[in-house]
Write a sequence for this structure.
């Protein structure tokens, strides 16, 4: 097996070290990579006549993507974190002590521990290209740069480093050059190694003129304060350990020497790695990766049915959204059927949303070109025979669905995939309406479709695996993030949302203020409080669901009966336009025996009820994999990414063990 780092010394005494972690798409700092680095350092330290060294990646599209997150997520003692850090700092210290210059020649991703490595080199050159991205994205995975990044980057480029690190920004090569992170930029078709050699020669000759301004950090207190306000604004006041400790490392470390700063960074890094938020964020990173490419979720070796035309039934709220995402992400002609009066408003709406996207430069083609692929109709015209997939989004009434499937069956081919966007009718109960029900399944979108990544792909009892795979393929083509589940009241996402509502209402009935209940959950990290969400969804919508499920919820009933369906819907709900609670709604809240509790108890109460629902979903095999629940709740409900999903968070805070004696993961 080849070594990770291979050195060839050329005639002029320049060592060219090519590194390539075998069998991996990306280079990362694995144990093997560290060992290889040690090995090449020994060669460099002991070889005679070397005047300088160049580090270049052997991968076509990647320099070094940083530390190995799997490795980090498995660390659970301070001692282990210190050992891990010593590998980095030991390696970089040897690099800096070589006595001759080191030049990093960058193409492809140079991120995290990859950038920290090149920051420890004497100079950096990068080749432009789509895959060349340079940055320290650790804060996005619940960590922060712990291999010197919080100290070396600000010392190189000054205060702008704070924002780059706190936001985890990844820069294209030209921007990194403009900011002074790299010293030379060559075009995508340039010869990186030859240019790196010229740069090294200049460095050796002392003619490179590298910009290494002495940075002035006397204003760091004020800058750090502003940066902190920026973070807290983005997290709605939540102090997430990654960025907070990154900031602390920079704030304190930039007032002292580099060596002392690195010690401060190390101490904070040991702390951050062991936080639940770091482990939660890394889980989110992995489950995101798992669902980023829906085609990879299909059965191994499955070849999806080629699609040429898509049809949508119903041009209402959901049909419009499905049409928008199909049109803008694919080249398929889209056929939509609805009643005559729905067609023009539907088209106008689709155009309005696409125009908005065009204005923000989010579309690759002109709106007219996109709209030219849309055909609207009131009848089952012959064109339906060409449809390879039909998504049904008509009224949520089983009688209407039955009629629609009956009519549709007469015009579509037998191999056409049919999927319902129903939010509450079991797929299995609609299967008898469809000839060849094995080609029928569910694809449940969220509103507004073009903003919500998630879809639930639903397997009815008769749905063939092939149909599920084809729906996953379709989800991928229209750029959705799917989870796969079976029939269930509320499938996964709405089922998990339910306990939020039930418990939030119970707390207000027990005399806790609406403000307190909502604040507890936004402080927990949810994007909106449960009572506000009820108001936005429509109080009557929730009421209907409660009635359908045989649940007596007296507050919702009395609010709806008073004509308050929600602020947006009927102008009156729980809240006023200025965001405050409407005092008129207070007498409508049904009283239970008073029981005032703290915000923490509210958070725990609501969260525990969610986890219990998750356990039930697993026990009843609604999903086959616990990660499906966490993906659904992060991307369907906005559950905080740093908690890794409700089921992962239950593991991390010890709730799973307390309730069930074992972890979900
Ligand atoms: P909507 O009322 O906005 O639109 C339904 C459309 O279906 C109307 O334009 C109506 O004219 C049309 N329609 C009725 N009968 C038809 C027929 N025989 N042929 C063709 N079109 C017909 O309803 P919305 O909200 O778009 O819901 C549609 C489906 O999506 C329902 O099954 C609903 O449960 C589901 N859903 C709704 C969500 C939401 O947030 N609104 C979220 C996820 C799913």
């Amino acid at each position: 097996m080849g070594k990770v780092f291979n050195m060839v010394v050329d005639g002029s005494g320049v060592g060219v070290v090519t590194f390539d972690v075998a069998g991996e798409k990306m280079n990362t700092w694995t144990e093997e990579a560290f060992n290889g680095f040690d090995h090449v350092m020994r060669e460099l330290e002991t070889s005679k006549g070397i005047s300088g060294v160049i580090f270049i990646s052997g991968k076509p599209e990647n320099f070094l993507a940083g530390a190995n997150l799997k490795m980090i997520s498995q660390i659970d003692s301070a001692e282990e974190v210190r050992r891990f850090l010593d590998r980095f700092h030991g390696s970089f210290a040897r690099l800096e002590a070589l006595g001759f210059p080191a030049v990093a020649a960058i193409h492809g991703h140079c991120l995290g521990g990859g950038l920290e490595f090149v920051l420890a080199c004497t100079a950096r050159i990068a080749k432009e290209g789509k895959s060349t991205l340079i940055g320290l994205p650790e804060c996005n995975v619940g960590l922060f740069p712990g291999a010197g990044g919080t100290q070396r980057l600000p010392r190189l480029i000054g205060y702008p480093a704070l924002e780059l690190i706190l936001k985890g920004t990844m820069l294209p090569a030209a921007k990194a050059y403009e900011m002074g992170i790299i010293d030379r930029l060559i075009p995508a078709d340039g010869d990186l190694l030859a240019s790196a050699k010229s740069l090294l020669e200049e460095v050796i000759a002392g003619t490179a003129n590298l910009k290494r301004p002495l940075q002035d950090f006397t204003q760091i207190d004020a800058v750090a304060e502003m940066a902190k306000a920026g973070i807290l604004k983005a997290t709605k006041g939540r102090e997430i350990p990654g960025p907070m400790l990154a900031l602390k490392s920079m704030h304190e470390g930039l007032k002292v020497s580099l060596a002392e700063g690195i010690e401060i960074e190390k101490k904070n890094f040991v702390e951050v790695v062991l936080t639940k938020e770091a482990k939660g964020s890394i889980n989110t990173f992995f489950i995101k990766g798992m669902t980023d490419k829906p085609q990879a979720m299909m059965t191994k070796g499955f070849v999806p049915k080629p699609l040429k035309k898509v049809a949508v039934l119903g041009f209402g709220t959901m049909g419009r959204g499905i049409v928008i995402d199909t049109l803008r992400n694919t080249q398929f002609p889209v056929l939509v059927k609805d009643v005559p009066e729905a067609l023009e408003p539907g088209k106008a709406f689709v155009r309005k949303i696409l125009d908005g996207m065009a204005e923000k430069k989010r579309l690759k083609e002109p709106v007219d070109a996109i709209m030219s692929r849309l055909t609207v109709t009131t009848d089952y015209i012959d064109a339906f025979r060409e449809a390879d997939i039909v998504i049904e989004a008509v009224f949520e009434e089983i009688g209407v669905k039955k009629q629609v499937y009956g009519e549709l069956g007469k015009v579509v081919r037998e191999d056409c995939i049919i999927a319902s966007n129903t939010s509450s009718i079991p797929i299995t109960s609609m299967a008898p309406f469809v000839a060849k029900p094995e080609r029928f399944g569910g694809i449940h979108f969220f509103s507004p479709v073009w903003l919500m990544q998630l879809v639930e792909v639903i397997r009815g009892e008769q749905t063939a695996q092939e149909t599920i795979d084809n729906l996953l393929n379709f989800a991928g083509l229209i750029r959705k993030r799917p989870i796969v589940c079976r029939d269930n009241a509320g499938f996964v996402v709405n089922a998990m949302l339910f306990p939020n509502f039930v418990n939030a209402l119970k707390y207000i009935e027990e005399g806790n203020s609406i403000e307190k209940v909502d604040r507890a959950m936004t402080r927990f990290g949810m994007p909106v409080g449960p009572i506000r969400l009820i108001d936005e969804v429509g109080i009557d919508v929730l009421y209907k669901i409660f009635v359908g499920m045989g649940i007596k919820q007296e507050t919702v009933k009395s609010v709806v009966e008073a004509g308050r369906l929600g602020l947006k819907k009927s102008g009156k709900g729980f809240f006023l336009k200025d965001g405050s609670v409407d005092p008129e709604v207070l007498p409508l809240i049904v009283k239970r025996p008073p029981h005032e509790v703290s915000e923490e108890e509210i958070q725990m109460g609501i969260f525990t009820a969610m986890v219990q629902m998750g356990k039930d979903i697993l026990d009843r095999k609604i999903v086959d994999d616990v990660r499906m629940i966490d993906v659904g709740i992060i991307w369907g409900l906005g559950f905080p990414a740093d908690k890794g999903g409700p089921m992962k968070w239950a593991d991390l805070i010890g709730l799973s063990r307390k309730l069930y004696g074992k972890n979900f993961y």
Observations:
- The chain is about 50% helix and 10% strand.
